[in-house]
Amino acid sequence: MATIDLAGKNVLILGGSGELGRRLAAEFYRRGSRVMLAGRSSGDLEKQARQLGPEVVYSSFDLRDADPGRIIDEAYRLLGALDGVVNAAGIVAFGPLEELGDEALNDLVAVNFSGPLRVMRAAVRRMDGGFLVNVTGVVAESPIGGMAAYSAVKAGLSAATRALARELRSKRIQVLDARPPHTETGLAGRPIEGVAPALPDGLDPDVVAVRVVDAVVAGRRELAAADFAP
Questions:
Q1: pLDDT tens track for 190-213
Q2: Residue 81 to residue 112: CA distance in whole angstroms
Q3: Is the dihedral of CA 24, 30, 36, 39 positive or negative?
């Protein structure tokens, strides 16, 4: 299994202003990568970029855009090259499927499934080697009642990611599907519909970020939920 030296690598972080995304960005940066943050809030991105370092770049971006792949063009413009794309973006909804509105369902699909795939498609058309990461989460392997649509789109992205790991071997692009258990990112407190049920204490996002980046360095294809156990 090939390993990756992250020093000098150009890495795009989708969801870079979120709790997990910014910790992943910090971990890549700590290991010598050049980092670009992408997310919906330009103010939060600017703040995070400033905290990381003066050379960190960012661009506001929404996975629901008509052309999600445009962020790859922006990455090449700002970084000059692209070695890795890490998707830590996501939205969630709670409640029975019969109560889920069409707009919320469409947004869940766009942000958690079709948008990331379209970004990855644009990336692999231009990348020469490198790596892709999708943080899909534990629901990709253990669907949860009251989160049917969210579970489904995360499972779909997980399946696509694992298939890409085989598909992209000839292009020397390593692909990682990371499925951490519930993590304290605050996402459950910001659902687009419904109210979160009582949840157990989640993992520390700093710990999850280190595990994911370690897996990238090691050239792993999967991090199952069980791989995040202490």
A1: 999 999 998 889 999 999 999 999
A2: 25
A3: positive
d(CA 101, CA 98): 8
Beta-carbon contacts of residue 162 (< 8 Å; ≥ 6 apart): 175, 177, 221, 222
The amino acid present at 142, given as its one-letter code, is: S
Please name the amino acid found at residue 153: V
Structure tokens at 150: 């969210």
CATH class of 10-222: alpha beta
Q: What are phi and psi of 173, to 5 degrees?
A: -105, 120
- Reported as type and span, the H/E element at residue 175 is strand 173-178
Residue 173 one-letter amino acid: I
User: Quick check: 50 and 37 in contact, CB under 8 A?
Assistant: no
Tokens of 16: 């870079």
Q: Phi and psi at residue 4, in whole multiples of 5°?
A: -120, 130
Average pLDDT, the chain: 96
How far is 143 from 199, CA to CA, in rounded Å? 15
Q: At what angle do helices 115-124 and 148-167 cross, to 10 degrees?
A: 10
The predicted pLDDT at position 82 comes to 98
Cβ neighbours for 206, distance < 8 A, ≥ 6 positions apart: 23
What single-letter amino acid sits at 28?
F
Residue type, 186: G
Contact 92, 192 (CB under 8 A): yes
Which comes out higher in pLDDT, residue 140 or 3? Answer: 140
DSSP assignment letter at 183: B
Rounded CA separation 64/40 (Å): 10
Two tokens, residue 162:
């694992």
DSSP annotation of 86: E
